[in-house]
Design brief:
The chain is 60% helix and 8% strand. It is α+β, with helices and mostly antiparallel strands. The chain folds into two domains: 2-72, Glutaredoxin; 82-237, Glutathione S-transferase Yfyf (Class Pi), Chain A, domain 2. The chain has a four-stranded mixed beta sheet with strand order 2-1-3-4, with helices on one face. Strand 1 (2-6), helix 1 and strand 2 (34-38) form a beta-alpha-beta unit. It binds glutathione (GSH). Glutathione binds at residues 17, 19, 41, 47-50, 61-63.
């Protein structure tokens, strides 16, 4: 049985990380059974979650995990055109390497976002054996580290209003590319749908309010796509 190591379920979603939800969704799309477990970042081969264990094989990073699953189990991209593949690569990079950091900024750097994140994060730290008195200290230390990462990446140097503006630009592009198609690339579900869906689900399904969420909610195509994917692959959450 495959084990996917992520964080812990939050806000009625299987995981608060888009990368974990993406892999879990791909596994559901190809109908391969797996167990989703809380992982330890210190044991993660690349110090990040998710990673996956399949028999003796350990694969880290959601992109390499999906590559592995495509090769070993089922490749949802068979038969897609070179143009569609290029579109998928561009869209994935936009969401994972740019938009993601706007989400991180909202959750970790913004006080309102951190107040929401803190509750689940404290619980996770306690469950992993951190003594009660040290939990807020460690949480603040990690928050500082995340802020440093955001600064180094660049998005953390903007005001949050500017970052939201960038994020909305990404979502506008996404809505335009999705258009009124059933799946991101047409009538057939492809691996890129796991990424697109994971990000949209986390935006609409978590209590981080603001212009990003309002933008998605005001776009019937984005909402309908998210609901469709959820009804198809995460029935129990509907
Ligand atoms: N490129 C990685 C990104 C995964 C990632 O950024 N995971 C975050 C949680 S959403 C993490 O584990 N961060 C811990 C850290 O940066 O120390 C993937 O696709 O799996």
């Amino acid at each position: 049985m495959i084990t996917l190591y992520g964080f812990t379920p939050a806000f009625g979603l299987p995981d608060p990380s888009p990368f974990v939800v993406k892999v879990a969704t791909y596994l559901r799309m190809i109908e391969v059974p797996f167990e989703l477990r809380g992982g330890n970042m210190r044991q993660a081969p690349k110090g990040k979650l998710p990673y996956l264990e399949d028999g003796g094989t350990v694969v880290a990073d959601s992109t390499f995990i999906i590559e592995y699953l495509r090769k070993k189990y089922r490749d949802l991209d068979v038969g897609s055109s070179a143009h569609d593949r290029a579109l998928a690569v561009a869209c994935k990079a936009m969401l994972e390497e740019h938009f993601y950091f706007v989400m991180v900024m909202q959750r970790w750097q913004e006080d309102a976002g951190f107040a929401i994140l803190k509750e689940g994060f404290y619980r996770t730290l306690k469950q992993s054996g951190v003594p009660g008195f040290a939990v807020p200290l460690l949480a603040n230390f990690i928050r500082k580290q995340v802020k440093k990462t955001l600064h180094a990446q660049g998005v953390g140097r903007h005001s949050f209003a500017e970052a939201e503006e960038l994020g909305i630009g990404h979502l506008e592009a996404l809505a335009e590319l999705l258009s009124d198609k059933r799946y991101f690339l047409g009538d057939t579900p492809r691996s890129i749908d796991a990424t697109v869906f994971a990000f949209l689900w986390l935006i609409v399904g978590t209590p981080y309010e603001g212009r990003i969420k309002a933008y998605v909610q005001s776009h019937p195509r984005l909402v309908a796509y998210t609901e469709r994917m959820r009804a198809q692959y995460w029935k129990e959450s509907v």
